[in-house]
Write a structure and sequence with these properties.
This protein has 406 residues and is mainly beta. The chain has one domain: Outer membrane protein transport protein (OMPP1/FadL/TodX) (Porin). It contains two helices and 20 strands. It has a 14-stranded antiparallel barrel with strand order 1-2-3-5-6-7-8-11-12-15-16-17-18-20. The longest helix has 9 residues. The termini are far apart. This is Transporter. Its main location: membrane. It is found in: Cell outer membrane. One of its GO terms (cellular component) is cell outer membrane. It is a multi-pass membrane protein.
Length: 406
């Protein structure tokens, strides 16, 4: 086999940094159950519980009691492929649904140190995907299995600078683990390609919240990019190909501007706009020690905006309710750059949620969101095969959370 023959599998790594994700691109925004209930609208200005620190560390200043939050999100995506003129070197069947149900846990903790300083710590998964097609499907030369996980450990500190101004800062230690497979056509037969790689990297986040009046609050937050250099192994076991691989991945920075406006003692409205710098994905490159799995793929992703507006209602001391709607842009510029690993597209969030105060020390939260998505078209070329068609996509998310306060 020459290098050109096995260059096709190298595209597996490059096209795989994406997800059937629940925010745009391959991001996971589900870091707060109370946030889920309002479609995460206004998250950079809201301080309902300890999970708010992920969206703005300055929110910690508004939490006056020690608190630990344990949350779990159940995510049920649907991603059905409809073939329309795909061309491949051998026959293959359509595949109905590549998306897998997933559980996404969160942990948040807050500890007021004194009247000015508040400490926080959160463990979240800000990026990820799990998708798996049948090994005989028509797009098997583009993708079979994609499993991307991130674990972000994020201590934060907030400072109450004045009665109106709070400032927060945090650092992140992030682990990424990636496993990807696809089929390749070699010597008239299908062979399975597998790539595994991981890495630790570091970043930071910071934010401010300013109370213009007792009823009007504005928040501004920033989360830095985190640059990973993944290292691992690539193999085509049927033909004895094994090699060390490396690849650079920049997980993008975000900037969010949010408003919380109290309308009355019972009603509060929230709104925000969040910018994500997905344009870092212009080109992805993988290198292998022997050169046989080295390749480059154009991505040409674009920066995106996410808009949200939400409403909360304090029904009583025991019950609060919330709802929200959001619009999330996709970074994928066209069908040419959309991959089988993620039929990413613009999506609209519609969400509801509730909080029940069981006691002075225990609070229960629940949220539900449905994501409506356009039917994304795909026209992906991998070597001598072309995957053409569209997807039917939607997502349901249910989250529950237990808050313990001391």
């Amino acid at each position: 086999m020459n290098k050109k023959t096995i260059r096709i599998p190298a595209m597996l790594f490059l096209s795989g940094i994406s997800s059937t994700s629940f925010a745009a691109g391959f991001a996971l925004i589900e870091q707060s159950v109370t946030g889920l209930g309002r479609a995460f609208a206004g998250s950079a200005a809201v301080s309902e519980d300890a999970s708010a620190q992920y969206f703005n560390p300055a929110a910690l200043s508004y939490l006056k009691r020690e608190e630990m939050d344990l949350a779990i999100n159940f995510i049920a995506p649907r991603s059905e492929f409809n073939n329309d003129g795909s061309t491949i070197p051998s026959n293959g069947g359509d595949y109905s649904d590549a998306a897998n149900n997933a559980f996404l846990p969160n942990f948040s903790y807050v500890k007021p140190l004194n009247e000015k300083l508040t400490l926080g710590f959160a463990v979240v998964s800000p990026f990820g995907l799990v998708t798996e097609y049948n090994e005989s499907w028509v797009g098997r030369y583009s993708a079979v299995k994609s499993d991307l996980k991130t674990y972000n450990f994020n201590p934060s500190l907030a400072f109450k600078a004045t009665d109106k101004l709070s400032i927060g800062f945090g650092v992140s230690a992030q682990y990424i683990d990636l496993t990807l497979t696809q089929m390749a056509r070699l010597a008239g037969s299908d062979v399975k390609v597998k790539l595994e790689a991981d890495d630790w990297a570091y970043g930071y986040n910071m934010g401010v919240i300013y109370d213009f009046t007792p009823s009007t609050r504005v928040g501004l937050s920033y989360r830095s990019k985190i640059s990973h250099t993944l290292e691992g192994d690539g193999s085509i076991k049927q033909v004895g190909v094994e090699d060390n691989i490396t690849g650079d991945v920049d997980l993008p920075e975000t900037l969010s501007l949010a408003l919380q406006q109290r309308l009355s003692q019972k009603w509060t409205v929230m709104a925000d706009v969040t910018w994500t710098r997905w344009s870092r994905f212009q080109e992805l490159k993988i290198e292998s020690d022997g050169g046989t799995l080295s390749s480059t793929k154009e991505e040409k992703w674009e920066n995106t905006l996410r808009y949200g507006i939400g409403l909360s209602y304090a029904h009583s001391d025991k019950w609060q309710f919330r709802t929200g709607i959001a619009y999330d842009e996709t970074p994928v510029p066209s069908a040419q750059y959309r991959t089988a690993r993620i039929p990413d597209t613009d999506r609209t969030w519609l969400a509801v949620g509730a909080t029940y105060h069981y006691s002075d020390n225990l609070i229960l939260d629940a949220g539900y969101a449905h994501l409506f998505a356009d039917n994304p078209k795909i026209n992906e070329t991998t070597g001598s095969s072309r995957l053409s068609g569209d997807y039917d996509v939607n997502v349901d998310i249910v989250g529950v959370q237990l808050r313990w306060l001391h």
